[in-house]
Each structure stands twice: as structure tokens, then as C-alpha cells.
Amino acid sequence: MQSAKQKISDMASTAKEKMVICQAKADEKAEQAIARTREEKEIAHQRRKVKEAEAKMDMHMAKAAHAEEKLLAKQSHYHVTDHGHVPHHVPMAAPAPAPVMGHGYGQNPPVVTSVPPQTYPPTRNQHYGNDML
Hints:
Layout: H1 2-34, H2 38-74
Region (Disordered): 82-109, 114-133
Coiled coil: 34-70
Family: Belongs to the LEA type 1 family.
């Protein structure tokens, strides 16, 4: 089921990329029609290339997010249980060092800060949700 969902999501991301590229080409033609000099036409062409590159980058990031969703669904048995047991192969983050205060010796004593506990599973980037479809 997750493979089919990933495939559909990837197709939607690719379709969105193609729409953005098509819009960029139309914008370039409109800008070139208005442009008077060769430099202005070249600027319009470069803007189109930037938009195409951004669309391709967004598509690849979306595909990576879809693959991550599939992997998380496949490996759901690695999640933390009610007993608080975390599998031994999950890396734990080291606590952050205390901030350094003052400029020299004896000015401000070091401050002990509490480090919030790490949550598992790690939170995903919510940018690539259903808004990509």
C-alpha cells in the first residue's frame, strides 16, 4: 500500500514540476515579447532557468519525503513503546554544552541549563504534506 501511495505522490510531484516549468516558459515568452534589448531577453531566459531549477529541486525534495514516509511506515516496529524502550541501534543526541558567559576568568559562573528530552520518532519536515498534491 505504501509503495502505491509513494508512486502516486511522486507522480503528483512530477506533474506539479512540469506545470511550473510550463508556466516559466510562458513567462519567459511574455518577458521576451516586452524586452527591447538583447540583455533583457537574456535576463528573461535566465529567470526561466532559475524557475526550472527550483521546480526540479522541489520535486526531488518531495520524492525524498515520500520515500521517508514509506520507510517510516515500513519500520513502524522501531517506534518507542509504552514501556519507554528504545531499540539499541537508535542514536541518542548528546546534551548541548552550557553557554559561555562573560569575557574572562571569574566574571560569571557557568550556568547549568536543562536539556529537553529528545523525542522519538524525530519530527518530519511538514512542508511536504498534502499541499504538494
